[in-house]
Structure formats: structure tokens, C-alpha cells
Specification:
The chain has twelve helices and 19 strands. The strands form four sheets. A seven-stranded mixed β-sheet has the order 13-12-11-10-9-8-15, with helices on one face. It has a six-stranded mixed β-sheet with strand order 5-4-3-2-1-14. The radius of gyration is 31 Å and the shape is elongated.
Length: 492
């Protein structure tokens, strides 16, 4: 709906190697997600068997039970228009692979194995699993279905415009060049990560930053689901962290160390991401180069758009151009960016004076404060800032006094030039009735003020610093050939 798609991530409470029990928890979460109109649902790594089965991964009974559980899940979801990623081990040519099984409407679309197998600290994956690196354009038989298997797979949803899904598993995310980078370059704007990430002090902060960075750097949605309570605590604890990040921003996060099944979801803005990709030409350039050595198979499936969505589940920023965090740093950046630009302009044209109109309102006050900071940084006397207040029709006593007091307190050169007589003379010259308060009445004042500022700039070998802001200029509130004109529009 309107470029959005509802995505969820689920963390079931599992029992080690109990595929039947785990299946029931998974189905409960799938049913809950379906009732909430979730279209894409991501589960943790090896959630059907559990991650910490250790040498039980060598037992055929575990694999038979895992496949039986998958059969049941396929049967129970055959009428559900929802893409679901499930983690389970899959045996191919006597090798065991740690896989994400992608299912939709009772069919297996693809099996995507893990590439990076951690074999350090508390992880021993190379003891059990093989890497997906050798599975290029392969197929396998799973639940009596012949399906593509490999890390070279993308999934594209027909019917939901612009949705392309890439998948990686846990440690893939932590590598110097993660698989999601290549998948995003070749079109994936939704990345699913099935994970079983252990908890260490401060690790969640690092993990969260990595996910945020990936989603920002790749202009994508990054969906993360990690194994949680129920996994073995022999050597480590898993907290069940889950999150949905969009273009660097967190839309929702699950509670860690939860002892119950967990489901979070959000409506992600696919149209926003695709437009960001259009602006970022690095994607097409990188794809052109990488296509010489990489290729991906795209699996298509039909999905209906989520028209049932009534209440948008995502944070809406009322001020989208302002950051949500580090507010103090943001304001310092604004000041330094604007004043550095003005410093360069003054230095380049060898100018040490500026002229600006002071109305007593917000915009001219901001422009004046930026000029003050600029001149202080340049060690130029503030008297070289010439502030001019030009009262006319409609000038309130409050703003008039504000303008005079502001200039006085800041120690600049202040001038007061009433323009009422000049504007009345202009009305007489063009035969305009001063009692008709139309656009001529309003704009003549702005143009008269601009003429005065320009002429004063010539007189004092200065430049006019504009006081209009970006919103005014964008929406046409600034008078054309009037206060829209300046030599340096610092606010905009």
C-alpha cells in the first residue's frame, strides 16, 4: 500500500533437537504474523532443529525430523501469501549445510546456505557444516521438491512493485565484505539475516551498529532474527535479538532475553529505498563491474500487495530532515557548515563587510547570528556587519523593537530606514491604489527593501546576505526580484 510492505521477524522459544516442539512454536508465530497481514517473515538460524545441537547434527534422525517438520509447515502455510524464511540443516552430497529455507504458499522457493562458518571462540561450525561457496547454480531435493540451492540467489516478488530479497546467515554479516553487499548491488533492497548470535557485554551495541550501517550503506531494509531462550547454555547464552532497520534507522526492536515467543513487525518504505538507489549511482556502476565475475539467479514468486494495512506500523518523523539522535552535534554541524561556506565566500572575493535586513523575526535573526559567528571566526570587527531595519505598512511594534534591540546587543552597525514614503511614491508612479492590499501592495515593500540593501552593499563594498530560508524559497513565499535576491543566501 502506497509503496509500503509489512515485514516481521519472529523468535520462537525452542528445545534443542526437538523438531516437533520447535515446529509448533514456529507455526504459532506464523499464524500470528498472518493475522497481522505480515508479507515477509524472518526466523532465526537453524530454528527447526535449534542451533546448539552440536554432534547431533551428525545424526540422521535429526535431519529426518527436521524435514518432517518442514513438510508440516509447508502444508499448514499453503494458503498463506507470506514469504517465510526458516533455518534448518540440509544434506547435499554427504555435506551438511546451514541453510535458510525460503517458503511461500506451501512451496520451497529456494534454499540459501551459509557462506561464513565461524570456528573461533564459542563457535565450532566447521566441525558440522560446509560453506555455500562451492554450491554454484546447484539444485537439491527437499520435501519432495526440486529447488535451487546456493548463496547466488535473489527472490523477487511479482505483484509488489520493487521488492527484491537477499538472504545471509549470522556470521556472513560480520565479514569485511558481507554477502549482502553483493546482493544489494545486484538489486536486493530487503536483506534477511537468520542468526544465532551469542551475548557478550556490549556486543549488542556493536551488533546493532553493524545492522544499522549495512542498511544505511546499502539503502536497504535489514531484517535480523537471532536465536534466543531455549538454546543450550553450555558455553554461551543467546539473547534472541531481533530488529528491523530501514536505511540506517531502527523501525522496531525485540526485547532480548525473552522467555516467550517474540514477534515484531513494521511497514517498510520500499519506494523510499528504491528512490535512494536511483540517486546513488554507485549501485549501477558497481553492478557493471561485478557482473564480470559474479552472477545471481533470481527466483520469482507471485505476491499480492498488502492492501489490508490500515494503521501504518512505523515511526513517523514530523521533522524528517532533522536527526533523531545527537541533537547537540547536529546544531554544531549546522553552524559550522553555514559559517564555513560564508567564510570561504568572503575570503574568495576579498570582502570584509556584509549587509542584511533585520526584521525582528526568526529568519533574519538566524542569518545575523551566523554572520556574527563568521566574523568572530575571521577576527573581523562586528561593526562591519551592517544591519538595516526598514519599517513600513504592517510592521508591528514588537518586531520593530526586537530588531533594534538585537542589533544593539550584538554590537553591529545598525541602520533604520523607513520605506513607507518610498513605497507610497512608487504606488503613485504605477497608479496603484494603496488601499488595495493585494500582491502589488505586499511585494512592493519587499522589492524596496531589497533595492536599499543592494545599494548599501555597493556603497560600503559589501555583499547582501539573504535572510530567506529554504522553505520560503521552495514554496515561493520569498518575493521574486525582492527578498529572494542576495549575494549569499546563508539560511537556504
Amino acid at each position: 500500500m502506497y509503496g509500503y510492505i509489512r515485514i516481521g521477524t519472529a523468535v520462537p522459544v525452542v528445545k534443542v533437537s526437538d523438531c516437533e516442539y520447535n515446529k509448533e512454536q514456529i507455526l504459532a508465530l506464523i499464524n500470528e504474523a498472518y493475522k497481522k497481514d505480515i508479507k515477509i517473515l524472518n526466523f532465526p538460524e537453524l530454528c527447526i532443529t535449534s542451533y546448539t545441537c552440536m554432534d547431533l547434527f551428525f545424526q540422521s534422525v535429526l535431519h529426518k525430523n527436521a524435514e518432517k517438520a518442514l513438510y508440516d509447515i509447508l502444508d499448514k502455510t499453503k494458503n498463506m501469501d507470506m514469504l517465510i524464511s526458516l533455518g534448518m540443516p540440509v544434506i547435499i552430497d554427504s555435506n551438511i549445510y546451514n541453510c535458510a529455507v525460503m517458503i511461500h504458499k506451501g512451496k520451497i522457493l529456494a534454499v540459501i546456505p551459509k557462506i561464513t562458518l565461524p570456528n573461533y571462540n564459542e563457535f565450532f561450525e566447521k566441525r558440522y557444516f560446509s560453506s555455500a561457496e562451492d554450491l554454484i547454480k546447484k539444485e537439491c531435493v527437499l520435501c519432495s521438491q526440486t529447488v535451487p540451492i546456493g548463496a547466488d540467489i535473489l527472490l523477487e516478488a511479482r505483484g509488489v512493485e520493487g521488492v527484491v530479497i537477499g538472504v545471509e546467515l549470522c556470521a556472513d554479516m560480520w565479514t569485511p565484505i558481507p554477502p549482502c553487499s553483493y546482493k544489494a548491488i545486484f538489486g536486493a533492497n530487503i536483506i534477511l539475516n537468520l542468526s544465532a548470535s551469542t551475548e557478550l557485554v556490549n556486543k549488542n551495541h556493536i551488533r546493532r551498529n553493524i545492522i544499522s550501517n549495512h542498511s544505511s550503506r546499502l539503502n536497504c531494509v535489514y531484517i535480523y532474527a537471532s536465536a534466543g531462550y531455549g538454546e543450550s547454555t553450555q558455553d554461551s547464552v543467546m539473547g534472541g535479538y531481533s530488529a528491523i532497520f530501514e536505511n540506517g534507522k531502527c523501525l522496531c526492536e525485540g526485547k532480548r532475553f525473552n522467555r516467550e515467543n517474540s514477534l515484531i513487525y513494521a511497514d517498510v518504505d520500499i519506494e523510499l529505498l528504491n528512490r535512494a538507489r536511483i540517486n546513488n549511482t554507485n549501485f549501477s556502476q558497481s553492478a557493471k563491474e561485478l557482473s564480470k565475475i559474479y552472477s545471481f539467479r533470481t527466483i520469482y514468486f507471485d505476491m499480492e500487495p498488502g492492501d489490508k494495512i490500515e494503521d501504518l506500523k512505523r515511526p513517523i518523523n514530523k521533522m524528517p530532515f532533522l536527526p533523531q539522535e545527537n541533537e547537540k552535534d547536529y546544531y554544531e554541524d549546522v553552524i559550522n557548515i553555514l559559517t564555513t561556506g560564508l567564510i570561504k565566500r568572503l575570503d574568495h572575493i576579498n570582502c570584509e563587510k556584509v549587509v542584511l535586513g533585520i526584521s525582528g523575526g526568526l529568519d533574519s535573526t538566524l542569518a545575523l547570528l551566523l554572520c556574527i559567528d563568521t566574523f568572530d571566526k575571521l577576527s573581523i570587527d562586528r561593526k562591519n556587519i551592517i544591519g538595516v531595519t526598514m519599517p513600513c505598512f504592517g510592521t508591528s511594534d514588537r518586531t520593530y523593537k526586537n530588531a533594534l534591540k538585537l542589533m544593539d546587543l550584538l554590537g553591529i552597525t545598525s541602520m533604520e530606514i523607513p520605506i513607507e514614503k518610498a513605497v507610497l511614491q512608487h504606488f503613485k508612479d504605477i497608479s496603484h491604489d494603496e488601499n488595495i492590499k493585494d500582491v502589488v501592495y505586499e511585494n512592493a515593500q519587499a522589492r524596496e527593501r531589497t533595492q536599499i540593501l543592494m545599494d548599501l552593499a555597493n556603497k560600503y563594498n559589501a555583499i547582501v546576505v539573504g535572510t530567506g530560508d529554504m522553505s520560503e524559497i521552495a514554496q515561493g513565499f520569498a518575493t521574486y526580484n525582492g527578498d529572494i535576491m542576495s549575494m549569499y543566501g546563508i539560511n537556504s
